[in-house]
Amino acid sequence: MPIKFILMVNKQGQTRLAQYYETISISEKTALEGEIIRKCLIRGEALCSFIEYQSYKIIYSRYASLYFIVGVDPGENELAIVEFVRNLVETMDKYFESVCELDIMFNIDKAHFILDEMINNGEISECNQANVLRPIQTMDKYVQK
């Protein structure tokens, strides 16, 4: 299980989406998120987007006003995770028509659904945008009728 967690955080450090793929207590999650978010937000743009924290390798990317932060096993390929995050953002952009913080906040269920279509138990299971979006678009058609 290479992916341990994914966080979507705004520029002020507020978590907008958190998905964990391992069991961690709420107090540990709070401490972990606070420390990782702080470390990612204070880094300059000239620095690389990879850091090591405790038993995790942290890969983060900023898209518009959101930081996408992924915690993985130390041996995981950083560039593969960067590519996955780019694909996740593009998939959400396609669905939300230019994803922003408010889209995540007001459609958290749909954001989780997209993420769940792409990751299964910490493993990347689907990267094809059409395959990821087909079920949610089908559900949207039935909800609108």
What is CATH's topology name?
Beta-Lactamase
Instruction: Output the CATH class name.
Output: Alpha Beta
| Residue fraction in strands | 25-35%
Low-confidence regions: none
**Distance N terminus to C terminus?**
40 Å
Fraction of residues in H or I helices: 40-55%
| Global Rg | 15 Å
Tally of strands: 7
Return the average pLDDT rounded to an integer: 92
Write the element-wise H/E pattern from the N-terminal end onward.
EEHEEEHHHEEH
Q: How many separate domains make up the residues?
A: 1
Please state the overall shape, judged from the principal axes of the Cα atoms.
globular
CATH architecture: 2-Layer Sandwich
Structural class: alpha+beta
Number of helices: 5
- Tell me the major beta sheet: 5 strands, antiparallel
Spatial strand order of the main sheet: 2-1-5-4-3
Which terms summarize this structure?
Beta-Lactamase, two-stranded antiparallel sheet, 26% strand, five-stranded antiparallel sheet, alpha+beta, globular
Give a structural overview.
There is one protein chain. By secondary structure, this protein is an alpha+beta fold. The protein has a single domain (3-144), classed as Beta-Lactamase, CATH 3.30.450.60. Helices cover 48% and strands 26% of the residues. It has five helices and seven strands; from the N terminus they run ββαβββαααββα. It has helices at 26-42, 78-96, 101-106, 108-118, 129-144; strands at 3-10, 15-20, 50-53, 56-63, 66-72, 119-120, 123-124. The strands form two sheets. The protein has a five-stranded antiparallel sheet, sandwiched between helices. Strands 6-7 form a two-stranded antiparallel sheet. A hairpin with a 4-residue loop joins strand 1 and strand 2 (15-20). Helix 2 (78-96) runs parallel beside helix 5. The longest helix has 19 residues, at 78-96.
